[in-house]
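Predict fold of Pectinesterase inhibitor domain-containing protein; 169 aa.
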Amino acid sequence: MAIFGTFFMLILISIVFMSIAPPVASNRLTDTEIKHLCSKTSNLENCYKVLKSDPRTRNVDARGLAEVSIDLASKKANKTHSLINSFVNKTHDSRLKNIYKLCSSNYNDAIRDLKVIKNYLKSGAFKNIPVQVKDASEEIKQCKNVFGGATSDGAHIRREIRRLNFLSA
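Predicted 3D structure, encoded as C-alpha cells:
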C-alpha cells in the first residue's frame, strides 16, 4: 500500500485533459499515445504499467482513460484512507493519533474531490476538472507534509511515502 500513489493518478488525469484536444478525445488511444501521456510523469514505466493493468484501457479514448484514472485514484485513496484510519485506532500516542486524524481528513477531502471530478467528467464540464485535481493533490500533499515531521512512530508511513514518491510528476 503506497500512501501517495493517488497523487500520481491525479496528475495523470490532469495531463489527459490538458494534452488532448476535445475533437481527438473521442478517438481510441494507442499504446504510443498512452506512453506519451505517461512520459509527462516522473516514471513512464510505472505509469504505463498501472494504466495497462486495468483491462478497460485496451480500447479507450481520452475520456475513458480519464475515467479509468479517476477510478484507480479513488480505489487507492479509499484504501489509503482505511489504512490511515486503522492506524488511528491502533496507536495510543495522542500526538501521533492527531497526525493520523489530520491525514485521514485530508484523504476524506481528496476522495470527495475525486467524486466531483468524476461527475464533471460525466457531465462534460471538463474546464472544471483541473481545479478539482489541484484541490485533491493539495490535500494529499498536506498529508505528506504532516508526516514529514512525525517521529519514528510514523516510520511506517514515511516508508510508504518514499516507496511511491517517485511517481509524482
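The chain has a mean pLDDT of 79.
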